[in-house]
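To: structure desk
From: M.T.
Subject: fold request, one chain
Message: Could you run this one when you get a chance? Sequence is below, nothing fancy, just the single chain.
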Amino acid sequence: MTLNDLRERYLDQPHEVSIETLALCNAACTFCPYPTLDRKGTAMPDALIDRLIGEMSTWAVPFSFSPFKVNEPLLDKRLIPICEKFNREVPVGFLRIFTNGQALTPEKIEGIARLERVHHLWVSLNSHEPEEYRRLMNLDFDKTAKRLDYLHSTDFPYPVVLSTVGYPNEPFRYYCWQRWPKFQSFAIKKDAWID
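Reply: Done. Structure tokens follow.
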């Protein structure tokens, strides 16, 4: 499909919708604007989320719904119910779930696994080196790695992608392939991650 075909196909609706249900993150990534946000802790009202899902339910062309932006979506206890509502009411929509991995508890993994039409679970890992990981994200690598070890040990039904900002990054990709061979890995250019 060419760029012109995509433009024509998505003339009446977006190809992807991304919303920030709760402006809260447990990381302080050096490449992310979250630490300087004025809206920290602000929750999108339920009525607005319902209205957006209602509008998306009228669309006819398949598209992606990403319930995250500059936040850690798993910190919002409404995330799984929002995604379940989306699954029920938007038959042509696919979910893209993003996380930094720290809040990826067994209960949340089970909740995501129960969802339908999940394109992938994308984990913004950013480094396989503990010191560099802490410097980049202000998080503990071992905690995140243990969460990913658990996820890797399950029969999770959807693709899992581990990403890093900084391209190319073959040592990161090799580490991920060795430790979590069921997962994909991806390196993103530093100037392209937010789009």
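Reply (cont.): The mean pLDDT is 91. Let me know if you need anything else for the meeting.
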